[in-house]
Amino acid sequence: MHLYIEKPGFVEAIAMLFMASGKLVKNYSLLIRYFEVLTQIGIDRSLSVPTSSDIEFVVNLIKEQNVSLLDALSMLMRRFIPRVNAEAARRAFEEVYGEKVDDLVAVDMVAKDLAGWTLEIAENMGLIKIDTSILR
């Protein structure tokens, strides 16, 4: 019997993304690598992870304020930008995509994926319904 072991942190990263559905974030490689880089540079990953407050925020936007999915994604993205570490985001982006980018682009990309993941979590908890037809 052969046991295949992924690189350290990979299984933990996948477990952390447990409520991810892939409905909005089609590829979680950037977020997984971002969290790995945070660990490598000694920064607490929990600062960037969606919280119950983020979930409440999005539910309020969609259910009570009747905000569209695209607007909710944009508002969540702005909420995450200050919580994304620029160095880790840039390193993760460059490693995953093989392209050099400035910190602002990398932070926006990580924040966008965090926002999408938050919406997926809220849907998986049965709190909202994501209609992706508007995104096609």
Give the helix/strand layout.
Blueprint: H1 10-16, H2 29-40, H3 52-64, H4 69-80, H5 86-97, H6 103-124
Helix pairs in contact: 2-5, 3-4, 3-6, 4-6, 5-6
3D structure, described in words:
By secondary structure, this protein is an all-alpha fold. It is 57% helix and 0% strand. The protein is elongated and about 40 Å long.
The radius of gyration is 15 Å
Helix count, DSSP H or I runs of 4 or more residues:
6
Q: Averaged pLDDT, please?
A: 84
In the predicted model, the low-confidence regions spanning at least 5 consecutive residues are 1-15
Hey, roughly how much beta strand do the residues contain? under 5%
N-to-C CA distance = 45 Å
Q: Main sheet? A: none
Overall 3D shape: elongated
SSE string, helices as H and strands as E: HHHHHH
Give the strand tally. 0
Secondary structure class reads mainly alpha
State the helical fraction.
55-70%
List key phrases describing it:
disordered N terminus; 136 residues; mainly alpha
Brief overview:
With 136 residues, the protein is mainly alpha-helical.
